[in-house]
Amino acid sequence: MHTSMQSCAFSCKSVCVCPAFCCAELPLIEAVKAGDLKRLQLELTAGADLNATDPHGRGSAVSYAASLGREECLQALLEAGADPEVRTEVPFLNISMTPLYAAAAQGHPGCVRLLLQHGAAHDTRSQGDGTPLLGAAMEGHRKCVEALLEGGCDIELATSYGQTPLMCAAQYGRAECLRALVKAGAQLDCHMTVSGDNALISAVKGDFLECVEILISAGANLEGGTDNGSTAVMVAAARGHTACLKALLRAGARVDQTTNLGVTAAMFACHAGSVECLEAILDAGADPNSVGGDPSFTALYVAAAEGHLDCVKLLLARGTNPAAVMDGGETALTIAAKQGHEGCVRALLEAGAPTESLQSLLFSVAAEGARENRPRNALIGAMPRNGPSPTAALFEAAAAGHVGCVQALLQAGAVTEVACTPFAVTPLTIAGMMGHTQIVRMLLEAGADPNAKTINGGTAIRHARNSGQTECERLLREAGALESDDEDDSS
C-alpha cells in the first residue's frame, strides 16, 4: 500500500484500496488530493478533462474533492462546469456512490452545500441503495443532515428494506442526527420490511439510551411491535438493557403484552438472566405467574431452565407459584434438575416446590397396576395429551447424571419409584442404563427397589447389562436385584 494514497476518495476509513498507479496519470486528481488549488487552476486553464476518472474509472476530480472535503477545489471544479454526478465505482467492494453521498457520509457539509447548489441530485441512491441523507445519518454527521434537509432531500426516502434516515440514526446511536430528523418532522413509527423493527426498537437493540429518550419525548409508539410481536420493552428485557427498559417503563410502556406466541417481557428477562430487568418489569406490575408460549411455560420455568438463580429467587420472593405445571407435566423443578442447575433446584425445593407433580404421581399409580396385567391401555388416562412424556425431577437428574441435583431431591424426600416415560421407567433403571454409578449407589441407599419393572417387565439390572454398564450391574446385583424371565426386550 502506497503512503501517498492514504486519503483516496474511494477508500474505506481513509485507507487506500486502489493500486499505487491508479491516480498517478491524472494531474487534476493529484492536485485535488494534495489540496493544491493553484495547481488545480493551472490544470483547468490548460484544458484538463473535468470529468475524467482515474485509469480504473473509479472517480473523477469532483469525487475526490467531495470525499476529502476540499471545498475550494470542489468549488473551482463545479464553477468550471464539472459534472457533480460522476460516481465512484469499486465493484469488488460493492462501492458505487455519487459525490454528494461521499461528502455527506464523510462529514463535509460545505461540500454538500456546494454540490446541491450546482445541481447534484438530492436523493440519488448509492452503495447499499442508501441516499445521501441516510449516509449522513448513519455516520453521525448532523451538519450534513441539516444541509441536506435544507437542500430539499426527501426525509422519508427509505432503502429497499424500509430503512429511513431516522431509523438509521436510531440504529447506529446517532443522537444528534436523530434529534435533527425528529425536529424536521420525520415519521417516528415506520417499520423495516424484513424484521418489522421500528426506530424505537432499533435504538433499544443498540442500547442507545439517548436515542430512546429522544424518540419517547417525540411521541414514538411504545407498544409497536416487530413481525413476531416483540415490543421495545421485550427487546430491552431480552438484551438486558436495563436503562432503556426503565426509560420505557417510566414513559408508561406496558409490561403485559405478549409476542405472537404468548411470550412476555418477564420471560425474556429470565432467558437473558437479567435480574435488574426482571425486577423493573415486576415493579411495573407484571404478573409473575403469567403463562405463555407454545408449549406453555412461565417466567420461573424459563429462569430455571437457563440456570439463572437470581431470577429464580426474585420470582419466588414475588410470589410465583413454584408448583406450576407446564404442558406435558413438566415443572420449573423438573427442568432445573434436567439441566443440572443445582442452585435452582435447591431454591425451588426451599420454596415448597413438590418433588413430583400430581400427574407424575397418578401415572406412577397407573403404571403399578399395569405392571401386573400389562394392559397398556390402563395408562392412557394418566398420559399427557400433548408435550413430553411423563417425567419427574428425580428421573431427569438421574438420567443426565447430575449428582448434586439427585442428592438435593433425595434429601427433600423425592419418590424413588416414580414412573416416567410411556414405559414407566424408574430413576434407578435410567441411571443404570446410562452408567451413572454414583447415582445408582445413591438411589439404592435411599431405598430404591432394585427389582422394579417397566410396563414390559424390564428390570434395572437387565437394562444395565444390555447397555454394557458392568459396574452398575454389579451394584444392582449386590443390592438384591433378581434376573427376570418375563422381560420384553422392547421396553
UniProtKB/TrEMBL annotation:
Coiled-coil segments on the chain, per record: none
Source species of the chain: Chlorella ohadii
Protein's recorded name: Ankyrin repeat domain-containing protein 17
Alphabetically ordered keywords of this record: ANK repeat, Repeat
A Pfam family hit: Ank_2
Repeat (ANK) residue spans along the chain: 95-127, 128-160, 161-189, 228-260, 261-293, 295-327, 328-360, 423-455
PANTHER family: ANKYRIN REPEAT AND PROTEIN KINASE DOMAIN-CONTAINING PROTEIN (PTHR24198), ANKYRIN REPEAT-CONTAINING PROTEIN-RELATED (PTHR24198:SF165)
Domain of life from the UniProt record: Eukaryota
Record carries keyword Hydrolase: no
